[in-house]
Specification:
Blueprint lengths: L7 H14 L9 H6 L7 H26 L7 H11 L9 E9 L6 E3 L4 E3 L5 E4 L3 E3 L5 E8 L15 E2 L5 H4 L3 E5 L5 E2 L6 H9 L1 H4 L5 H9 L6 E6 L7 E6 L3 H14 L7 E4 L2 E12 L10 H20 L16 H11 L5 E8 L2 E4 L9 E12 L1
Parallel strand pairs: 11-12, 13-16
Antiparallel strand pairs: 1-6, 1-8, 1-9, 2-5, 3-4, 3-7, 4-6, 10-11, 13-14, 14-15
Helix pairs in contact: 1-3, 4-6, 10-11
Length: 389
């Protein structure tokens, strides 16, 4: 039996007509017409019916919530979580951001092992912990070590050069190595909040496929729960039939090795021919002519135009490279399209009235064309030239 939501007006008029038929209210032929037309009727019983109908409407809203609570297409929040628990597809939790740290050390004449678990932090108190132990070669005073945020979610991301404090317990008496300084040359990667209802709903709808080891959905579910990456690409049959190329951004040595081992252990049916790569950076040059004075009675001064120009350049870098905190930039294999960049710049720099993207060719300067980026590449901002008309 299909549940049908009922509302106040329908409930009230239904009760009113029953009361009229049973002789509980006036038999005046015009009485119902007066009530339906919302004319003032001083009748205590009718007012009680109105209050009752309003209360029953609230009950229908509750019944409506219950009716949809076990239907994956409509369930929300904890109801959707319960459906996922029943079918064995739990909601992907918030993931942790990851970053490669660079430590400087004393120079030793024997190999020293730096253990995992060293905590570093920003001046603002955001903490990261190293997730691998590494050997410090003889005569070396610098080493790179992978670390993950202590807390999960988007707030765990950090900008480049901000992880500069070493935990006070990371001293030679305890770990066997003197760590002098630490920094993160690049911003952190990954670190996303818990899946929204809509994102989670899509996973549940594909849960049968996710449970089939080796399926595309099984890989997608794995990466939805993996910490510290921005994006990934799966390229099947890239080398020989049955081979799989996995491109992971940013693809540090630790990430490539860790993802490979976990895919073989939890996703593939048998040990398979998987090759791991970081994306190949593809430099993108930008040459654009901008106008900010169209329709203005008083044009911008040269100083103001220089400030706007600087903001346009920042917007271009943000669109292509992204930043740690708000915008992911171009993903692996995402083509660069000048028109979309123009729309993005206008959102960031509302003073911009017109922009023409150009490129140099053998025949001269012509309108810029989209840049095709393969599934093994990721666009990065290179030379940016902006002319202000």
């Amino acid at each position: 039996m299909t549940f049908v939501q009922k509302y106040y007006e329908e409930l009230f008029l239904f009760s009113l007509e029953n009361a009229y038929d049973d002789g509980l209210i006036s038999h005046d032929d015009e009485f119902l017409t007066y009530v339906k037309s919302k004319q003032d009727i001083s009748n205590f019983y009718v007012m009680n019916l109105s209050v009752l109908a309003d209360s029953i409407e609230d009950v229908y809203y509750d019944m409506n919530d219950i009716y949809y609570s076990n239907k994956v297409d409509y369930a929300l929040g904890s109801d959707l979580d319960e459906i996922g628990r029943i079918v064995g597809c739990t909601r992907p939790a918030a993931t942790k951001a990851s970053v490669e740290l660079t430590f400087t050390t004393e120079v030793y004449d024997t190999v020293k092992t730096i253990p995992e678990g060293i905590i570093v932090s920003t001046l603002g108190g955001t903490k990261y912990i190293t997730v691998q132990s590494v050997d410090l070669p003889v005569g070396t005073a610098e080493i790179n070590i992978q670390a993950e945020a202590v807390e999960a979610g988007i707030d765990s991301r950090v900008l480049a050069g901000t992880l500069v404090k070493i935990d006070t317990n990371a001293v030679e008496e305890i770990i066997g190595v003197t760590l002098k300084t630490v920094t993160n040359p690049a911003g952190s990667s990954g670190g996303v909040d818990e899946y929204t209802d809509e994102e989670y709903r899509e996973l549940i709808l594909d849960w049968r496929k996710e449970n089939i080891r080796g399926s595309k959905e099984a890989y997608e579910y794995f990466f939805a729960n993996y910490d510290g990456i921005n994006s990934y690409k799966l390229i099947p049959n890239w080398n020989v039939t049955g081979s799989l190329k996995v491109v992971v951004d940013p693809g540090t040595p630790y990430q490539l090795n860790d993802v490979y081992e976990k895919l073989q252990a939890t996703v593939t049916q048998f040990p398979e021919d998987i090759s791991m790569f970081a994306p190949e950076p593809l430099p993108i040059d930008i040459y654009a002519v901008c106008n900010v004075d169209i329709d203005l009675i008083n044009p911008y001064s040269s100083v103001e135009k220089e400030a706007i120009k600087s903001r346009i350049i920042d917007a271009i870098k943000l669109y292509i490279n992204g930043d740690v905190e708000n915008y992911s930039g171009l993903g692996i294999g995402e083509d660069f399209i000048p028109y979309q960049l123009g729309v993005f710049i206008h959102e960031q720099v509302p003073e911009l009235k017109n922009i023409n993207f150009l490129q140099y060719t053998n025949s001269g300067v012509v309108p810029a064309e989209p840049v095709t980026i393969t599934d093994e590449q990721k666009g990065v901002a290179n030379d940016i030239t902006i002319e202000m008309e």
